[in-house]
Structures are given as C-alpha cells and as structure tokens.
C-alpha cells in the first residue's frame, strides 16, 4: 500500500510539473508571436494577444498607455509596414494558476532592453495584460545617463508630484 501512495504522489507531481512546463511553453509562444507581430506590422495579431484592458509602459516616463490609447499611438507605425522589432534573448516565466509574470532581455533597435509583464488566462488563452519596457543601462554608465536626464526628469517630477496630490 505504501508503494502505491508513493507512486501516486510521484505521478501527481510529474503531472503538475508537465502542466506548468506546458503553460510556460504556451506563454513563450504568445510573447514571441507578439514581438513578431510588431516586427511584421500585424496590428490585429499584436493587439489580439493583449487583454482588452491591457497596459503598455514605454521607456519614457510619460508612456503609460492604456489599450485604446496604445492602439491609436501604434496604428501609424503599423500602417507604415513595420512597427518595432524586439527579439527575446533571455526570458524567465512564472505561473500561478491563471496568472503568469515574466521578465525578458530583448535585442532591439535601442540595443539591450528589458521587458517584463503579466499575462492572464482569458477563455483558455494567455493574453498580455501589462507590459513594461525598460532600456538597460550598464552600472558604469548610470552617472553619465543621470546627467543627460536630470533637467527633463526634474520637470517631469513636478508634474508627477502634482498629479499624486490631486
């Protein structure tokens, strides 16, 4: 009887592990397809892989794009035949039921960037609900970058602080 319980427990663990890996494989396909859709200027596929209330945070502090605004902003780029080209070179995925989160290092026209975000299961399909794009800066270049950003960031801070107070 004890051997049967051990076998059942191991079989259950194997099933859970395979299921989690299967979900990670599906999420990898969604993220790769999403990036490819942008590179191919396939507007419908790109936005079809996001939730209806999806959010895209760009590299500029002012870029907090809710889905409809992001569609409007992106449409002219897609209409020109090429939006942007991001290729994942490293990715980590974490799954907890119907929610997953990830981080990825991307090869882009801006050189190395990081994408991170959240996906949700929607009617059995993984959809991107939240995406954050960041430009990666080597630690030894941070001081020089801060000098470049200082004036603009100071102005933006005033606006953000006023927004939080209201």
What is the share of helical residues?
Answer: 40-55%
The main pleated sheet reads as: 6 strands, mixed
Identify the quaternary structure here. Answer: single chain
Number of helices: 4
CATH structural fold name of the largest domain = Nuclear Transport Factor 2, Chain: A
Distance between the termini: 66 Å
**What is the beta-strand fraction?**
25-35%
Order of the strands making up the biggest sheet: 2-1-6-5-4-3
The CATH C-level name of the largest domain is Alpha Beta
CATH architecture descriptor name of the largest domain: Roll
* Molecular shape: globular
Write the H/E string, N to C.
HHEEHEEEEH
Structure, explained:
The protein has 166 residues and is of the alpha+beta class. Residues 10-18 have low confidence and may be disordered. It has 4 helices and 6 strands, in the order ααββαββββα. It has helices at 2-39, 43-48, 67-79, 142-165, and strands at 50-57, 64-66, 87-96, 99-108, 111-122, 125-135. It has 2 domains: 2-135, Roll (Nuclear Transport Factor 2, Chain: A), CATH 3.10.450; 138-166. The chain is 49% helix and 33% strand.
């Amino acid at each position: 009887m004890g051997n049967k319980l051990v076998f059942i427990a191991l079989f259950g663990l194997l099933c859970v592990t395979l299921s989690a890996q299967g979900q990670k494989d599906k999420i990898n396909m969604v993220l790769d397809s999403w990036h490819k859709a942008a590179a191919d200027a396939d507007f419908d596929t790109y936005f079809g892989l996001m939730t209806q209330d999806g959010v895209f945070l760009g590299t500029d502090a002012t870029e907090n794009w809710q889905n409809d605004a992001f569609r409007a902003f992106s449409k002219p780029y897609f209409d020109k035949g090429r939006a942007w080209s991001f290729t994942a070179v490293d990715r980590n995925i974490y799954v907890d039921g119907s929610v997953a989160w990830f981080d990825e290092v991307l090869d882009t026209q801006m050189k190395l960037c990081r994408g991170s975000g959240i996906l949700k299961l929607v009617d059995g399909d993984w959809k991107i609900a939240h995406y954050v794009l960041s430009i990666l800066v080597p630690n030894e270049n941070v001081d020089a970058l801060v000098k470049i950003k200082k004036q603009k960031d100071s102005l933006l801070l005033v606006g953000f602080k006023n927004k939080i107070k209201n």
